[in-house]
Design a protein that fits this description.
The protein has 436 residues and is an alpha/beta fold. Helix content is 32%, strand content 22%. Bound molecules: flavin-adenine dinucleotide.
Length: 436
């Protein structure tokens, strides 16, 4: 049985990278800084970059190495928005605040692509849009409703009929869909490495192999409010940000790890397609996801291969049967791929919340946590990292609502409970119901 934690090394991205890793060192001495960031993914590095650019003394502590977490092994699909549609956000938060959140999350892909351009990160961005395709006639109505809501927000999304989806994706398995032109793809590890280099160039300290093992209020000194234990060293900081998402830091903030559900997502990538297949299967770099709850998500790789992702097991061990199911799903959608070599198979932890929303917490003054992007973290973590940096620098509150940490009561039973949930979703998918 393979370890899902260690399977980052099998991910395509680690074998196809243009941006060299940062030579990050382990923490060498006791230090005092303004902001300590726990976790070296998009959340931590985006916050650190923007804080360092504002002149804040910031250090990032990563338990393993940059890219060990989801940010170094994801699908590379930069999709804007939350899993709540614009009208849902307005209904939940009221017209003014709801609309601000629509703009914040809806603008997250633009923000991310602009950042890539500003920092000149060689992560091979392709902005060919994202199609969400209805897996049943019943799932089409909510998709069209979603698209119309974004059109009302002034976004040039397209509503596609069955034939248009088939023509643009090369599979006739869907009943229509919508295309969001704001979305696009990147080499996700290179994007992360680019962020790390930019943060270091701006003055952030990036410490790898530096697990934060303890966190407590600092007892001395006028500036430090928090004291972190990293190996044998002490870090004193006024503000702490925990950005560990689906690889939760254990024991730093009571209940934080128990407030989210890390779930594996599995992925595979093929060898480059030949010219005929290349023109037929998702040409031009468009990305595709399905409306099923247990959905597949797909894209072409920078080298011209095909990539598909889907559900994995709960826990740290991969389930080979689910990888076989992923391969089967790929061939059902694209029978022409039979015989194309699969070069990489891997998995990682997506971080889910019960309400489907990311969560921003400030559990005590100056102690923040940002997590649970529900599989949409590239744009959101990058954008929210900047939002939090702005709050810390200007001390004006972030517009994203802060919530209390709420441990999930059945967290210790999550494997059997989520097993039941999967069966429930499987049934809903079979009935043709849509999800977000
Ligand atoms: C297989 C897969 C496919 C995905 N596909 C997409 C996609 O196509 N599009 C999209 O938008 N999102 C996708 N996601 C989700 C996205 O990758 C995540 O939301 C995002 O990377 C989260 O970034 P992060 O910085 O919050 O966390 P991570 O990148 O997971 O980083 C957390 C880091 O914290 C470190 N850490 C933990 N504890 C400690 C400690 N005590 N001390 C120091 N460091 C610690 C970990 O080692 C880890 O490196 C996918 C995720 C997976 C797993």
């Amino acid at each position: 049985m393979n370890s899902s934690l260690e399977s980052y090394a099998n991910a395509l991205w680690w074998h196809d990278s243009l941006v060299p890793p940062l030579a990050g060192h382990a923490l060498q001495s006791d230090i005092e800084i303004d902001v300590a960031v726990v976790g070296g993914g998009y959340t931590g590095l985006s916050a650190a970059l923007h804080l360092a650019e504002a002149g804040v003394r910031v250090a990032v502590f990563e338990a393993r190495h940059i890219g060990f977490g989801a940010s170094g092994r994801n699908g590379g699909q930069i999709i804007p928005g939350l899993k709540y549609d614009p009208d849902d956000l307005v209904a939940k938060y009221g017209p003014e605040h709801g609309r601000q959140l629509v703009q914040l999350a809806g603008g997250a892909a633009d923000f991310t692509f602009d950042l890539i351009e500003r920092l000149n990160i060689r992560c091979r961005p392709v902005r060919a849009g994202w199609i969400q395709a209805a897996h049943s006639p019943l799932a089409l109505e909510p998709v069209v409703k979603r698209a119309r809501q974004w059109q009302a927000e002034g976004v040039a999304v397209e509503i596609l009929d069955r034939d248009e989806v088939a023509a643009r994706t090369g599979t006739a398995a869907h009943f229509g869909g919508w295309r969001d032109p704001r979305a696009g793809s990147v080499q996700p590890l290179d994007f992360l490495r680019g962020l790390a280099h930019a943060a270091a160039d701006a003055g952030a300290q990036i410490c790898e192999q530096s697990e934060v093992q303890s966190l407590k209020p600092a007892s001395d000194g006028p500036n430090a409010r928090w004291q972190l234990g990293v190996g044998k060293h002490r870090v004193r900081a006024r503000t702490v940000l925990i950005g560990t998402n689906g690889y939760p830091a254990k024991g730093l903030v009571p209940g934080l790890a128990q407030s989210v559900l890390p779930v594996q997502s599995m992925q595979l990538a093929t060898a480059p397609l030949d010219a005929t297949l290349s023109e037929k299967i998702m040409p031009g770099g468009v990305m595709l996801s399905q409306t099923r709850k247990l959905a597949f998500y797909m894209r072409r790789t920078p080298a011209g291969g095909f990539m598909i992702g889907g559900r994995g097991a709960v826990g740290n061990t991969e389930a080979p049967g689910l990888m076989t199911a992923l391969e089967r799903g790929m061939l059902q959608l694209f029978p022409d791929l039979r015989g194309t070599q699969i070069l990489h198979r891997w998995s990682g932890h997506v971080c889910l919340s019960l309400d489907g929303l990311p969560h921003l917490h400030e559990t005590s003054p100056g102690l923040y946590a940002l997590q649970a992007y529900n599989g949409r973290g590239i744009a959101l973590a990058t954008r929210f990292g900047k939002m939090l940096a702005d709050e810390i620098v200007s001390r004006s509150p972030a517009i994203y609502p802060k919530t209390k940490v709420k441990p999930i009561v059945w967290h210790s039973l999550r494997r059997p409970v989520m097993g039941l949930g999967v069966r429930w979703y499987w049934m809903k998918d079979r009935l043709g119901l849509a999800s977000k």
